[in-house]
Amino acid sequence: MDAISLLTDIAEGRQSADIATADSLRRVAAGNPSLHAFITLSGSAGREAMQLDAEGRRNRPLFGLPLAVKDLIDTAGLRTTYGSLIHRDHIPEQDDIIVARARTAGAVILGKTNTPEFGFGALCANALCPSTANPYDLSLSSGGSSGGSAAAVAAGFVPAALGTDFGGSVRTPAAFCGVIGFRPSAGHLPSTTRRLAWDAMPTVGFLTRSVRDAALLYDSLAGPDARDPASLRLPSGTAAPTRRIACSSDLGTAPISQAMAERFAAAGAAIRQAGWAPTQAHPDCTGAMTSFATLRAAHIHSNLSPLRERHGDLLSPTVCWNIGRGDGLTAAAYLQAEADRTVLYRRFIAFFDDCDILITPSAAILPFAADGGEVREIDGRPLDSVIDYLAITAIITLTGCPALSLPYWPPGETLPIGLQLVAAPGRDRSLLAFAAELESHAAFGFRPPPLFMENFG
After folding, report:
1. What per-residue confidence (pLDDT) applies to 155?
2. Is 441 within the bounds of a domain?
3. Model pTM?
């Protein structure tokens, strides 16, 4: 079941939190040895579910929902490793605010899903857990860095999961695994532990099998917190009609594989058949990835360089490379990147004066080998850095716009691609409403992977 169907059954007495949790744990036990979606399971999930049943629903919108949480997000009393040997035995004392809100809303935290170390890397693998496979083809990658969450949802282990997204870490795995990946407007899911409180490029996001489930999580968990100034900036608007659609395969600057470009063209035709008339347009994104790379390098260096000094021998080469990108970065370079980001943001605001939704691919490439490494080239063309393949999503991160990855199934293909649907900041509900409308057409939305069909009986 998707989340809303399960919650309806629980509310109407056909299910219970205890049974739903036990069913999820059974599916994980059967399928996780081949998928490697979970790195840690909660030993108390069953007891928590029984306690919920004893208390009763009490107007809790997520009552009894088994929820997976990416292993970058703190969970009180449940091991949280950040995918790193340094934290292999780390057990947080407090929940992240979104986890705390989920518990208050009645969710049962089932366990922690796999991630590359500190979320950095194209492959969802680390020294503590093998690479998370793609539920549609176990030889392929689930994508980074919320690949464990995306795979757990796609395989039917859980109805929904929390991920995190900086440059595309919810949207890329959602595209690879054929699920919904929703990154809300910057600040709508607050953080009370972010070291740089005034910036909201990284955020929690949702992985689900339907748009309505993503909307449920958003409505249940979003909202400001005074400890996060970014969360106070932007109200959450109501849904408005969506008719002005623009499509862009590359935002004018992002590298995209030929295979992805061909599938995206087919998606445009399917959107037209569904009744819309998209134009080919996008804001001017010149220089956007230079800004993103500079800001990302500065943030990573600020947050993680002390770990390199104390535990450099335990860090992966990818994490060391990411930290090193910030060595010697000047204040002038950082501020110029922020100024260029401001220009980009204002271009997007102006663009959305005449457009309701911008549609791009959610990933530059199709899923690659599960035992592969970083993405260093596309169609034989070398990339300047290993983060350049994320340009199609990272550029959107810079703007703070809400973005949702929706599966599209090209004719005759056994793997979907993701369509990145983008709206103006604060128009999250309009974005969700459009995504749900598009999802209702046959070529779009989640389809159970044949390898895990028994979880969808």
Report:
1. 98
2. yes
3. 0.98
